[in-house]
Structures are given as structure tokens and as C-alpha cells.
Amino acid sequence: MEYLNLLLLILLPLTLLKVFSWITKSSPTNLPPGPVPLPIFGNLFKLGKKPHESLSQLAQIYGPLMSLKLGSLTTIVISSSTIAKEVLQKHDQSFSSRTVIDAITISNHHKSSIVWLPPTPQWRALRKLTNSHIFTTQKLDLNQSLRHRKLEELVSYLRRNASSGSVIDIGQAAFTTVLNLMSNSFFSIDLADDFGSDSACAFKDAVRGLMLEAGKPNLSDYFPMIRFMDLQGVRRGMSKHFGALDEIFEKIIQQKLLTLQCREGNTSDLLDMILDPSQEIGIQLQRHEIKSLLKDFFAAGTDTTSATIEWAMAELLHNPSKMTKAQQELSDILEKDRLIEESDIVRLPYLQAIIKETLRLHPPAPFLVPHKAENNVEIHDFIVPKGAQVLVNVWAIGRDPNLWKDPTCFSPERFLDSKTDYKGQDFEFIPFGSGRRICPGLPLAHRMVHLIVGLLLQSFDWKLENGLKAEDLDMGEEFGFTLAKATGLRAIPEPAEKSRYITCRIPALQSIIIDRSIHVTAPRMYSYALFEKPKPRFSPVTARKIAGENQSARVYGLDMVEFSNPQGLTEEEVRPLQRTFQDLHNFLEETEGFEASRCLHVIHFVRCENYWKKKLCPPLDTEYKHKTR
Asked: Which CDD domains match (predicted)?
């Protein structure tokens, strides 16, 4: 690390006395445990290239409440849900300030930023503005048609590329869609001319550059006396990226002011509302304050949202059975040829579970935004000293084996029967923070992520470029203020095929297609009929009884029977299976003396090229794959 060697050469002769004073100064008593700091640098070398992983490993040694010395900065790292709850809920007021990093002080951004301001009257007024006028349910509902229009544009773009077999940069497509969704809400214009356009790429480069520079361990934060040197060029990089955004927003504001004069004060979007003095929004913002607010919303909103969408699609391409299950849910719930809408989200539990599982494994900000102790606070018999930086490692909490079974596995099913949510009350799962400093844009992000991921799955099948296998997909991370995918996700969309249905009626049965077999759940008292009367009349398909492999089956006194073919079931093999089910229906009705129609379910076996799909009512919580030979 060349910059550390340079720092040492400069620091030793210039600050020997100050360093000596720092070394000999007695540390606050009863700090949380942590690794022994080196002179001058403290524990800086412990951070590594991926601090969220390094500090998670250190927490396994020193505990979930750990202290570090990063240069001259005392840092407390929290890696458990229990301590996170105590800090962010019980002692919320004491930890509601921010440790302002040097990168954010460019153009005094921190003095007017809703993210970085301490809880002053100015911050409370900005928070009230966002909660009461920008991200309210009423405001978001009014813009639904706008978001739907942007989704249609995304579909059109993907269809054009699907027809030519072109590869899509999913992260860039998601970023452009999110950017235009937000810019139309705020400005009534598209900030990106087209998908992959120069304007879209330039905005993404500026935002991504901001997030990388802001997340970079910066010597200026750890050694304030050498801040003026900007040894790593962080301030220069931030000035460049802030300047690019500042120029964009300044032009928009100037145009808006002219438009407002022509319209005599009528408002149509969020920026109109902020600029119009006749609007009673509780705060009058200066030009630089408006631009700071826009930088906060657009930098955080576009980068974190598009990163989450890219991670969700990466996990689904890495786990094809999960993608198939999500697509089946969308097919079952949504009407034919209708794009997903915001009102559909509550009816799509598996899609919701996918987003939750993505946020658990890949939280947008692995340490949230740094908190600061306003006074000495006692936590679990240790003292968090006044002025200490407090980092909540939500990445580590989301992978805590004490909280999550198989924590590194992508398993949306874990959320299907769980009420755990990411709105700040379940501290094992706080990707957006908690308390008074929870992410203000969460309501909009929630809608955008579900809509875009749902649309990508509903309208297209996806395959990786160059024949890459799912298990070989690079899932590496790039650390920054936002935890991005190290390599962009590139995949080829294929239009979802129209289904051809073959229907059969099955008495009291629920059928799920699993890989090369069909699993049938039947009442235990009737399951013998699948073997005894009549026997399956087809080969090489075999039938066998499965014991105890389905929780729902056990609860309701059901048996599971598997019909399988190692080579994959074909249409020719399924048709006689349907006849067997029909024979079973007749057998039950004749021998048991009850109306079989009262317990009938209509099952659809769907032929779609080399896929079998089903429509199921009601569905079971069993995982299934569709692909056969």
C-alpha cells in the first residue's frame, strides 16, 4: 500500500510530538474488547480490501461488540442483532449523530445533507419534508402510472434485444430505469436518453464514483492533521463526481424556475413543490440545499436500488430453480398479458421473499451510515466513549448462523412463513437501518425493486452469456459505500413462451412437478389406490411412496407419491398418468360414496418447448423445478 508508506515518511518528522502524545495518552477505561492497536496506525491494517468481511471475522474472536483504533479514530463495531437493537432503539438518541467522513465535506455537502446532518432543527425539517411531502403513500400512489410507463419502456428495450439475441447489462438497465423513474417523479423528465446512452452511463459513473470514494478507507479520516494533503485523492475524486451532479441539477433548477414563472405557480412534480414559495412544505430551502437534497436522493436511491436488483437477478441466475419458482408464481397470480403492478406485490409472497433474501445476503450499505456517540454510553457493561464512530455490520448480522439456518445459502423460502421485515423493527434484518435515521427513501425503493425484478421475471426467460453455467457465475463483491457486484451481470433475455394447457381433474390431489418427476399429495386413506387400483399403466415411469418429505403433507394427514423417469417425463408419459388420475377419481366416487367433485382440484400440465409447468390452486410450499428432457 504505497500511500501508507508515503504517509509514514511524512507523518514521522512532522508530527512526532503529537503521535507520542497520542500513544502515551491513556485510553478510555472499559472499552469493548478488540485487537491490540499498532502505534500510529492502530488497527488500520486489519481492514483489508473488504472491511465488512474482515470485521466480521474479527468479531468471531473479540465478540459482537468490538473496539478498534483506526489511526486516531476510536471505532466501535456491532455485529449482533441484540446489540444493534440496544444501540439503535434503546439508545437511539445518543447514537443519532453521524461521523462525518472527509469525502462528504466537499462543497460543505454535510452541512445541508439529510443523510449527514446531526439531529438539529434543520435536519428535522428536512425529514418532515421527505416523510410528509415526498415519500408519502399518497404521493407515491399518484405516480404509479408514471412508473408503469417506465416499466413498459424497459420491456420494449428488452424485447428489441431479445429478438436479436443481444446480451443485456442488467445492472445498467436497472440503473437507467430507476434513474428515469426518479427523475420523472422529481423533474418530469428523463435524465437518461436511452438504455446504455451516454447520459445514462455518465450519471451512473458519477454516482458509482461517489459511492466508491465515500466507502474507501481514507487516511484523512484517521489522521485529521494530514487531511489537507489528500494523499489518496479522495477529495479530488469526490469533487469531480459532485461537480458532475451539481452541473446537472443546476441546469434543471434554472429551467424549473423559468417554467414556474410561466405557469404562475402551478406545481406538477416534486421539484416544483420545493421551489414554489406558495407551497406550505414547512421549510424554505436555498439553492445549495436543494442540490444537496437531490444529490442525497439520486446518489443513494439509484445506486442502492439498482445494485439490489442486479444482486437479485444474479442470485436467481445462480439458482435457476428459484427463478423458475418465482416465474411460476407470477404466472399463477397475474392475468395473462398484463404487466405486474404495485398492487400485485402483496399477492406475490415468493417475490417478496426473494427481495428479502437478497437484502439479507447483500445489504446495500454493509455498515449503514456511520453513527457517532454523543456521550459516553454503557452497552453490555462496556463503555462506548463520546465521539466514537459506531459501525453496525448489517452484512455480518445477515449471515449470523445463530440467527439464520445455512446463512450463506440463497433460500427465499426462509421468509415465506416468517413475519420478519426490513422496516426497522426486526434487528436481525435491518438493511435500511432503524430508528430516526432509517433510510427515508425506503417506501419508494420497496416499490421499485419489486416492480423491476417482477417484470424481468414475468416477461422473459434468462440465460447467461457465452453458455456460462449457473454454478460458474461470478458472485464476488466490490466494497464501497454501496456493496456492488464486482463484475457486471450480463445475460440474454428470451421472450416467455405462450403455454399450451393439457387439463386433468384429480380428486383431492395437489400436484407439483419436480425436476424429472411429479409429486402427488393424496389423503393417506386413499393413497394406496395409486398403487392398487388401478396400477400405473406406463413405462419406464415408476411410482413410489415418499414418507415424511413434506411438512404440509404430514400436518394434514397426507401421503406423497412420486411418479418419475430418470430421463425426464414426456408428454406421452403424462397422458396415461392423467388417465390414471381419472380412474382414481372414478374409483373413489364409486367405493367411498361421496361426491368427488367437492374435493376436486383442476391441474394444468403446461407444455412449453422443453419445459413442463403447472397451474396449482392452492399451491404448496414445496420447491419445484420444471425442466425435463
From this structure: CYP76-like (cd11073)
C-alpha span between 119 and 113 (Å, rounded): 11
pTM: 0.77
Chain segment 286-306, per-residue pLDDT in tens = 999 999 999 999 998 999 999
Q: Across-strand partners of 505?
A: 602
Please name the residues in contact with 295: beta carbons below 8 A apart, sequence gap of 6 or more.
109, 113, 242, 245, 246, 249
Other beta carbons within 10 Å of 370: 18
For residue 117, give the C-alpha cell.
Answer: 446532518
> Exposed e or buried b for every residue in 75-85, given b needs 16+ CB within 10 A?
bbbbbbbbbbb
C-alpha cell at 511: 400436484
Please provide residue 282's backbone torsions phi and psi, each rounded to the nearest 5 degrees.
85, 0
Q: What's the pLDDT score for residue 502?
A: 28
Element (H, E) at 448: helix 442-459
CA 362/CA 313 separation, integer angstroms: 12
Pairing of strands 73-78, 389-392: parallel
166-170, 292-296, 328-332, 422-426: least confidently modelled range: 328-332
Q: Is 439 annotated as a binding residue?
A: yes
Range(s) of the chain covered by CATH 1.10.630.10: 121-495
Q: Tell me how far apart the alpha carbons of residues 396 and 158 are, in angstroms, rounded to a whole number.
A: 36
Q: Is the dihedral of CA 505, 612, 619, 512 positive or negative?
A: positive
